[in-house]
Design brief:
Elements: H1 10-13, H2 19-28, E1 34-35, H3 48-58, H4 76-88, E2 98-101, H5 103-115, E3 121-125, H6 130-138, E4 142-146, E5 148-149, E6 152-153, H7 155-167, E7 172-177, H8 191-204, E8 207-211, E9 240-245, E10 257-260, H9 263-277, H10 282-293, H11 296-323, E11 337-341, H12 348-357, E12 360-361, E13 363-364, E14 377-381, H13 387-412
Parallel strand pairs: 1-12, 3-4, 3-7, 7-8, 8-9
Antiparallel strand pairs: 2-10, 5-6, 9-10, 11-14, 13-14
Helix pairs in contact: 3-10, 5-6, 5-9, 11-13, 12-13
The structure holds pyridoxal-5'-phosphate.
């Protein structure tokens, strides 16, 4: 058989894989497995009948462009709809400042291709979304982690890390962060910090990549529109590249997201996108556009907020009952994730090994840290499993923890 190793490029050899995708594959192996791993939306909440009707209408054949190639930048009416949606989030832009992307993941990848010089440092949070870690690493970036506290990224540490990297001779042009219900930590960045981040970016001459898939999924009104106001909404100097998506609020299978940036940058991203996929799928864009235009998204949003809040409550209650204080966490105010700290003496990988034996899967905390730490954390996703499965998963987690503790105690004996 042909040995392919020697054919691989340096990039091909060192491709960075997402830990979450790997865990997703484990979960898919058995229906018996309870998965707290992948951050999937609940498929029972997809608006199946409305989408069926829209799809049938679009496939009538009356409009041949529905299945035709189209502009790389995206279906123009959809861009117009997104401009309106952005205005409701406080972001006032025109169509040339927007491009459709194949999921917001492609937006992150485009940023890596267009704005990262190999060897440059990209600043990310500790912890950070693994899909961004992979994209920036595959673009040849060094990644430097910045601490968080309860209110999100720590601005003093941010400045210190930026200056340290520059003193060491590395270019620092980008900060990537998820201000609303961060994946994985579930944190909501404080409003004052959002404003100060813009001042900081100006002072240090850095661009901010603001990734916002979860902003609409807040659980309490006090975590609602005011407190999720995007950083981009107050960005008068063009410091922020804003990414968002229909994946969490409509359905991820469509692969429709978007990017907002200065028109001159959007042109660059568009050119890079041309050689990747020519365009995001026409049919997907049309369905999403029709769904937004007919109010499906507006009707769905409050339903999803209630649904995921119920799941969050169920997970918090089940963990409290089953694990009685052995896990600690900040209650997530929105999004899909509960980010838990393990008791002393138990590390994430040992616990995952025991959990898999109990037919439970989650993502280890260390997968989200670019500095090799995070072994005292786990990410538990509550979005997809039913309340009953969440309770069952909490029971299995408790059993896994008992076995991990017993083993730690044995190993720890002189
Ligand atoms: C923070 C963050 N950014 C981007 C994405 C990718 O989303 P999309 O489906 O739009 O590519 C995800 C998906 O989980 C995410 O959590």
């Amino acid at each position: 058989m042909t040995e392919y190793g020697k054919f691989l490029s340096p990039t091909g050899r060192h491709l960075h894989e997402s830990a979450i995708r790997r865990m997703g594959t484990v979960a898919a192996r058995s229906a018996e497995m309870v998965s707290f791993a992948a951050g999937y939306p609940d498929p029972t909440a997809f608006p199946w009948s409305e989408l069926r009707e829209l799809a049938a209408g679009l496939l009538s054949g009356a409009d041949p462009t529905v299945l035709q190639y189209g502009p790389t930048r995206g279906h123009e009416p959809l861009i117009g709809t997104i401009v309106e949606l952005l205005a409701s989030r406080g972001i006032i832009v025109t169509a040339p400042e927007v491009t459709i992307t194949t999921g917001s993941q492609q937006g992150i990848d485009l940023v890596g291709r267009v704005l990262v010089t190999p060897g440059d440092t990209v600043l990310v949070e500790l912890p950070a979304y693994t899909g961004a870690i992979s994209a920036f690493k595959n673009a040849g970036a060094r990644l430097a982690g910045v601490r968080q506290d309860e209110d999100g990224i720590d601005l003093e540490d941010l400045d210190a890390v930026c200056l340290r990297e520059r003193r060491a001779g590395h270019g620092v042009n980008l900060l990537y962060l998820v201000p609303n219900f961060q994946n994985p930590a579930g944190l909501l960045l404080g409003l004052d910090r959002r404003r100060r981040l813009l001042e900081w970016a100006e002072r240090r001459d850095v661009l901010i990549v603001e990734d916002d898939p979860y902003g609409a999924l807040y659980f309490d009104d006090d975590a609602g529109t005011e407190r999720t106001r995007p950083i981009r909404a107050d960005d008068a100097r063009g410091r922020v590249i804003y990414l968002s998506t229909f994946s969490k609020t409509l359905a991820p299978g469509f692969r429709v997201g978007w990017m907002v940036a200065a028109a001159s940058l959007i042109e660059r991203f568009e050119t890079a996108k041309q050689s990747i996929d020519l365009m995001t799928g026409s049919f997907d864009q049309r369905i999403v556009h029709e769904a937004v235009r007919r109010g499906v998204l507006d009707r769905l949003a409050p339903v999803l907020r209630r649904l995921y809040r119920t799941r969050r409550d169920a997970m918090e209650q089940a963990l409290a009952e089953e694990l009685g204080g052995r896990l600690r966490w900040h209650p997530p105010k929105g999004g899909f994730f509960l980010w838990a700290t393990l008791p002393d003496g138990i590390d994430d990988e040992t616990l995952l090994a025991r959990a898999l034996e109990e037919r439970l899967v989650f993502v280890v905390g260390s997968a989200f840290y670019v500095d090799g730490t995070g072994h005292d954390r786990v990410r538990l996703s509550f979005s997809a499993p039913s309340v009953d499965r969440i309770r069952e998963g909490a029971r299995r987690l408790a059993a896994a923890m008992d076995r991990a503790s017993a083993r730690t105690a044995r190993v720890g004996m002189p």
